[in-house]
Amino acid sequence: MPATTSEKGLGALPFGSMHSKAAARRASGSLGGLQARLPHSLAKAVALFPEKMYDFVSYAYDSIQDPHSDYAVQMQTVCRHHHERFMTAVNQMPEKDRNWFAAKIFDTARCRAIALPEAD
Q: What single string gives the DSSP state of each residue in the chain?
């Protein structure tokens, strides 16, 4: 019969042991990777489904709450390739939101990001 951890002198591993902490770090890293890829993935998705452009543009406020998000940078490509639909979506925003978007997130006239990600 194999020796138990107590018999090996290791003691009982409590809940929250190193094994579960390592698993939590791996899961956190996976989620972080998904979060980091989200702006790029959404830009690709809206290119395939441009009828969702308003949702894409409107999500910009939420996305920049993460200082490392490059959402506004990803919007540059969408703005350039789908400019008319992009501008229609921006113009559908309430005036207050549209003005804030133009001042803080994105220069629609030049298709340039204003909200740039912070360096890691």
A: -PPPTTTTT--PPPTT-HHHHHHHHHHHHHHHHHHHHHHHHHHHHHHH-GGGHHHHHHTHHHHTTSTT--HHHHHHHHHHHTHHHHHHHHHHS-HHHHHHIIIIIEETTTTEESSPPPP-
What digits encode the pLDDT tens for the residues 72-111? Answer: 999 999 999 999 999 999 999 999 999 999 999 999 999 9
Q: Which two tokens stand for residue 45?
A: 């998705």
Domain holding 90, by residue range, is 38-113
Residue 85 lies in a domain: yes
In the chain, the number of structural domains is 1
